[in-house]
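Per reviewer request, we include the raw input and output of the structure prediction for the construct analysed in the revised manuscript.
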Amino acid sequence: MVTAIVFISADVARIPEVAEAVAAIEGVSEVYSVTGDIDLIALVRVAGHDQVNQVVPAGINKVPGVLATETHIAFQAYSRHDLESAFSLGTDPAG
Protein backbone atom coordinates (compact mmCIF):
# COMPACT_ATOMS: atom_id res chain seq x y z
CA MET A 1 0.00 0.00 0.00
CA VAL A 2 1.31 3.42 -0.99
CA THR A 3 0.09 6.57 0.74
CA ALA A 4 0.63 9.92 -0.93
CA ILE A 5 -0.13 13.31 0.58
CA VAL A 6 -1.05 15.77 -2.15
CA PHE A 7 -0.98 19.53 -1.53
CA ILE A 8 -3.41 21.26 -3.88
CA SER A 9 -3.54 24.93 -4.85
CA ALA A 10 -6.97 25.73 -6.23
CA ASP A 11 -8.96 28.61 -7.66
CA VAL A 12 -10.25 30.15 -4.42
CA ALA A 13 -13.74 30.67 -5.84
CA ARG A 14 -13.98 26.96 -6.69
CA ILE A 15 -12.50 25.27 -3.60
CA PRO A 16 -15.69 23.39 -2.58
CA GLU A 17 -16.25 22.06 -6.12
CA VAL A 18 -12.58 21.15 -6.53
CA ALA A 19 -12.59 19.32 -3.18
CA GLU A 20 -15.70 17.32 -4.11
CA ALA A 21 -14.32 16.42 -7.54
CA VAL A 22 -10.97 15.32 -6.06
CA ALA A 23 -12.72 13.28 -3.34
CA ALA A 24 -14.66 11.42 -6.05
CA ILE A 25 -11.46 10.17 -7.73
CA GLU A 26 -10.77 6.49 -7.12
CA GLY A 27 -7.77 6.15 -4.82
CA VAL A 28 -8.40 9.41 -2.96
CA SER A 29 -9.43 8.51 0.59
CA GLU A 30 -9.79 11.98 2.11
CA VAL A 31 -9.68 15.65 1.15
CA TYR A 32 -9.19 18.47 3.67
CA SER A 33 -9.62 22.21 3.24
CA VAL A 34 -6.71 23.82 5.10
CA THR A 35 -5.18 27.16 6.01
CA GLY A 36 -1.78 28.32 4.84
CA ASP A 37 -0.08 28.46 1.48
CA ILE A 38 -2.17 25.66 -0.01
CA ASP A 39 -5.93 25.22 -0.23
CA LEU A 40 -6.54 21.47 0.00
CA ILE A 41 -4.75 18.32 1.12
CA ALA A 42 -5.73 14.99 -0.42
CA LEU A 43 -4.70 11.61 0.95
CA VAL A 44 -4.19 9.03 -1.76
CA ARG A 45 -4.05 5.36 -0.79
CA VAL A 46 -3.36 2.92 -3.61
CA ALA A 47 -1.72 -0.46 -4.16
CA GLY A 48 1.42 0.79 -5.88
CA HIS A 49 3.38 3.70 -7.31
CA ASP A 50 1.90 3.21 -10.77
CA GLN A 51 -1.55 3.99 -9.35
CA VAL A 52 -0.24 7.24 -7.79
CA ASN A 53 0.61 8.29 -11.34
CA GLN A 54 -2.96 7.55 -12.41
CA VAL A 55 -4.53 9.40 -9.48
CA VAL A 56 -2.39 12.55 -9.34
CA PRO A 57 -1.27 13.67 -12.82
CA ALA A 58 -4.04 11.87 -14.70
CA GLY A 59 -6.76 12.60 -12.13
CA ILE A 60 -6.29 15.40 -9.60
CA ASN A 61 -4.29 17.65 -11.94
CA LYS A 62 -7.07 17.44 -14.56
CA VAL A 63 -9.82 18.67 -12.20
CA PRO A 64 -11.02 22.12 -13.32
CA GLY A 65 -9.90 24.68 -10.76
CA VAL A 66 -6.73 22.84 -9.70
CA LEU A 67 -3.86 25.27 -10.24
CA ALA A 68 -0.93 23.21 -8.91
CA THR A 69 -0.11 20.12 -6.86
CA GLU A 70 2.81 18.93 -4.77
CA THR A 71 2.96 15.21 -3.96
CA HIS A 72 4.71 13.60 -0.99
CA ILE A 73 5.04 9.81 -0.68
CA ALA A 74 4.76 8.48 2.87
CA PHE A 75 7.41 6.00 4.03
CA GLN A 76 6.08 5.04 7.47
CA ALA A 77 2.87 5.66 9.44
CA TYR A 78 3.16 6.47 13.13
CA SER A 79 -0.40 7.43 14.06
CA ARG A 80 -2.19 5.72 16.94
CA HIS A 81 -5.02 4.83 14.57
CA ASP A 82 -2.71 2.85 12.26
CA LEU A 83 -0.97 1.12 15.17
CA GLU A 84 -4.27 0.08 16.75
CA SER A 85 -5.44 -1.31 13.41
CA ALA A 86 -2.24 -3.32 12.99
CA PHE A 87 -2.47 -4.87 16.45
CA SER A 88 -6.15 -5.76 16.05
CA LEU A 89 -5.65 -7.86 12.90
CA GLY A 90 -7.14 -11.29 13.30
CA THR A 91 -8.98 -10.55 16.52
CA ASP A 92 -12.65 -11.21 16.85
CA PRO A 93 -14.43 -8.14 18.30
CA ALA A 94 -17.46 -10.27 19.29
CA GLY A 95 -15.67 -12.53 21.58
